[in-house]
Amino acid sequence: xxxxxxxxxxxxxxxxxxxxxxxxxxxxxxxxxxxxxxxxxxxxxxxxxxxxxxxxxxxxxxxxxxxxxxxxxxxxxxxxxxxxxxxxxxxxxxxxxxxxxxxxxxxxxxxxxxxxxxxxxxxxxxxxxxxxxxxxxxxxxxxxxxxxxxxxxxxxxxxxxxxxxxxxxxxxxxxxxxxxxxxxxxxxxxxxxxxxxxxxxxxxxxxxxxxxxxxxxxxxxxxxxxxxxxxxxxxxxxxxxxxxxxxxxxxxxxxxxxxxxxxxxxxxxxxxxxxxxxxxxxxxxxxxxxxxxxxxxxxxxxxxxxxxxxxxxxxxxxxxxxxxxxxxxxxxxxxxxxxxxxxxxxxxxxxxxxxxxxxxxxxxxxxxxxxxxxxxxxxxxxxxxxxxxxxxxxxxxxxxxxxxxxxxxxxxxxxxxxxxxxxxxxxxxxxxxxxxxxxxxxxxxxxxxxxxxxxxxxxxxxxxxxxxxxxxxxxxxxxxxxxxxxxxxxxxxxxxxxxxxxxxxxxxxxxxxxxxxxxxxxxxxxxxxxxxxxxxxxxxxxxxxxxxxxxxxxxxxxxxxxxxxxxxxxxxxxxxxxx
Length: 579
Description:
Elements: E1 2-11, E2 17-31, E3 34-42, H1 48-58, E4 70-77, H2 79-90, H3 93-97, H4 102-116, H5 121-127, H6 132-137, H7 144-156, H8 158-169, E5 179-188, E6 211-218, E7 224-231, H9 236-250, E8 256-259, H10 267-274, E9 279-284, H11 287-293, E10 310-313, E11 322-327, H12 329-358, H13 365-376, E12 385-389, E13 394-398, H14 400-407, E14 412-417, H15 426-434, H16 436-449, H17 461-484, H18 509-517, H19 529-537, E15 540-546, E16 552-556, H20 561-569
Parallel strand pairs: 5-8, 8-9
Antiparallel strand pairs: 1-2, 2-3, 4-15, 5-6, 6-7, 9-14, 10-11, 11-14, 12-13, 15-16
């Protein structure tokens, strides 16, 4: 017996062609030399799955309940690891790290894990067995000692890695403006045994905590190229000097313009750069230097900015340099508001002391002076007040002339550079300096948003340096992932070009629409970078065992449209395995 399926079609009265299938249970037998078919029953009225089961049973196929046909013996998150690994492969990160070996596999896994789920080294290595990284790279059973040995191996490769990145992103072929960004930040250290841990100015607001400092060198787009770690009390100019040595000595880039903030590239550092043929600079002046330029008869005439917000001037105090003066009205208003708030807050702090003096509870000029002195400079505006102190009185008044003189320069900043006008005009200089904001974004990614560099738990100096290098490489990977996945996230895919670089940056209409509607035209939600990685993690790799067998086969869960799109944006298929 067998199931016969007969397909037929006809045209109805409306001219539409209809197709249908008839199913019959038939018996086939021989009548002499003739093969005949006998219809035993019509199966056309039965559900499809019932007909399929009858046909399978007649073919002697073993039938099992649907829930017992297969068993998922193991399921691990896969999509997020596979996507980051695919981008790493596209960027040539494995070859960038060094020759193929177990240490390289461990290092690559550390970098990918830092992007996917930043954690301590022990937690990271323990978690490898729960993702595709452990099985595919053969590192699931790696010990803590092996992980630390891999970090030591990575530190030995640092110069080679950074030279390759410099050739890729800072060489004249890729960096026609020959500019490099450099900035310094800090992160606090847990424990007391790290030789790099020192007390210094904390960019994290962790006053009184030992810290390390590290400087990041990047191309004009903020793509990390190199990193250097310093003791926690290292000054910005000293760090900048080492950055210049790296660019010229290790990278062999003799023609380069270094871009840094006003605390980084000091007058002394510029004096040193003048002695290096081919090295230029772009930085900003400090407030006292701007005030000197604006003094009576100085080259900075405030009336120039009644109708414009950008002008180029020269000064004999800066021979061979260009000075680009900018005035940002939004910044001016914000500084005026902040100053008034701080002045009012300082007066509020002094008011209780004044009340105690008036009530006779605090007497003596020396005692009154000590009490007022403890609080007058708390908000850094004590210079704007006059204190009149006697044995029985305390009066505080604002220095309105001094406040007015400072307010006149609100919103002004002056850039100084050695770049000639034939190479870059004044608006271009402003834009190049504002590119330092990309480094600030990198620091946020490294320290807080994505990679969780801080706090530092390592004790040995080399391990601290290797940890920071790992985070820099993860930042390099994240930089490219964020750009590739911009259509799926809230990232502004095409920020508008500013006709006037002095004005504040604005988001594109598309980015505003993303923030307002939260979903694209197809109804798919926009996600944060971390949210997209979490969504990709739901694409699991499963070990499936079929009924009646002991062997298992790997199978991916069915990808969602957003998961498919994420891999399409990085130009890679969804891999079943990483290698």
